[in-house]
UniProtKB/TrEMBL annotation:
<feature type="transmembrane region" description="Helical">
    <location>
        <begin position="310"/>
        <end position="328"/>
    </location>
</feature>
<dbReference type="InterPro" id="IPR024163">
    <property type="entry name" value="Aerotolerance_reg_N"/>
</dbReference>
<feature type="transmembrane region" description="Helical">
    <location>
        <begin position="12"/>
        <end position="29"/>
    </location>
</feature>
<feature type="domain" description="VWFA">
    <location>
        <begin position="91"/>
        <end position="270"/>
    </location>
</feature>
<dbReference type="InterPro" id="IPR002035">
    <property type="entry name" value="VWF_A"/>
</dbReference>
<dbReference type="Pfam" id="PF00092">
    <property type="entry name" value="VWA"/>
</dbReference>
<keyword id="KW-1003">Cell membrane</keyword>
<keyword id="KW-1133">Transmembrane helix</keyword>
<protein>
    <submittedName>
        <fullName>BatB protein</fullName>
    </submittedName>
</protein>
<dbReference type="Pfam" id="PF07584">
    <property type="entry name" value="BatA"/>
</dbReference>
<dbReference type="InterPro" id="IPR050768">
    <property type="entry name" value="UPF0353/GerABKA_families"/>
</dbReference>
<keyword id="KW-0812">Transmembrane</keyword>
<dbReference type="InterPro" id="IPR036465">
    <property type="entry name" value="vWFA_dom_sf"/>
</dbReference>
<keyword id="KW-0472">Membrane</keyword>
<feature type="transmembrane region" description="Helical">
    <location>
        <begin position="56"/>
        <end position="74"/>
    </location>
</feature>
Length: 345
């Protein structure tokens, strides 16, 4: 098993085709100037020791060195074995509202972006807990199954947007039922927590019925309200620029407001409601709630002994750089005798 520690540096590999293009252009320019200087055969006779292939070899060496330096920055890691470890934690599902109303910017930068930030900060606090992610609007959509791999969870979190669920609206009951389905029957002893993040605008029915079903299954609920009760319009953007605002069938601008009572009703007699406008307040609230939930021991398979391999790539890169220093443009005598590259003396 292997993993890449810093994948963002892979973009540096795009410099390789750019360098090749620069090299080809420079080669074309040199030959053009040689033709202007005089006959190519005469120029070749005036520089008998100049190698035809050495500059290509030097380019290959430089590109290999660059590739190795990039891989050293990426830092590949290799896991040498797997082991089953026992952990104490709880199972947590994040249900995140991705309806169009979450594009409202009554809280900076937007309700949806604030929701992603909150979940990311909460994940940073977890150690042994398993997490899953559900997206919902007019219906619910499973984004990430239960996992203890927090880096993967953050990757899926960043990809969430208002286009991932086709049916619009806000169906809180679907979100609760989908979240409840994440908890397997064989995990009845595991403590279960749903953290539902929304502006509370419920366009469906049956939320309370879904809450009762969840409670019978032993699932506790925290609701986090994102937005303001004053509300605001829903921007329609193109390439990040606001072009207009959403309007209803009567051409009136749609205003969306935070519905606190709806969210409070869902988490009533459970773990309660907290405003998501203050990140620190949310982190403290959830931490206290987790401290009051019994932890359950469960088994988790993980790869261990992940060893960094950057030093190998760094060493190869340095060796190639040294090789490039000693590669001269003149012909190598023993290669010249072999005439491997059909270089005429």
């Amino acid at each position: 098993m292997w993993e890449l520690d810093e994948q963002k540096y892979l973009y540096l590999l795009f410099a390789i085709p750019a360098l090749v293009l620069i090299f080809l252009y420079n080669l074309y320019w040199k030959r053009k100037k040689q033709r202007q200087f005089g006959d190519r055969e005469l120029v070749r006779k005036l520089t008998p020791e100049k190698s035809v292939f050495k500059h290509i070899l030097k380019l290959i060496v430089v590109l290999l060195a660059l590739s190795c330096l990039v891989m050293a920055l990426v830092n590949p890691k290799i896991g040498t074995k797997t082991e089953t470890v026992k952990r104490e934690g709880i199972d947590i599902v994040f249900a995140i509202d991705v309806s169009k109303s979450m594009l409202c910017e009554d809280i900076a930068p937007s309700r949806l972006e604030k929701s992603r930030q909150l979940v990311s900060q909460l994940i940073n606090q977890f150690t042994n807990d398993r997490i899953g992610i559900v997206a919902y609007a007019g219906s619910a959509f499973p984004v990430l199954p239960m996992t203890s791999d927090y880096s993967v969870a953050k990757m899926f979190l960043e990809s969430m947007n208002t286009d991932m669920v086709s049916s619009q609206g806000t169906s809180l009951d679907d979100a609760i039922r989908m979240s409840a389905s994440y908890f397997k029957d064989e995990d009845k002893k595991t403590s279960k927590l749903l953290i539902l993040i929304s502006d509370g605008e419920d366009h469906g029915e049956g939320a309370q019925e879904a809450v009762e079903e969840a409670k019978k299954a032993g699932m506790k609920i925290i609701t986090i309200g994102v937005g303001t009760e004053k509300g605001g319009p829903i921007p329609i953007k193109k390439n990040g620029i606001v072009e207009s605002y959403k309007r209803d069938s009567h051409d009136q601008m749609v205003l969306t407001k935070l519905n606190v009572p709806a969210l409070q009703a869902i988490s009533k007699n459970s773990k309660g409601y907290v405003s998501g406008n203050n990140t620190k307040e949310v982190l403290n609230y959830v931490k206290k709630a987790l401290d009051n939930i019994d932890k359950t021991q469960f088994k988790s398979v993980q790869f261990t002994d992940f060893n960094s391999q950057f030093q190998w790539f760094l060493g190869i890169a340095l060796a190639l750089v040294l090789l490039d220093v000693f590669l001269l443009d003149k012909k190598t005598s023993w290669v010249k005798k072999l005439n491997l590259f059909n270089e005429k003396g």
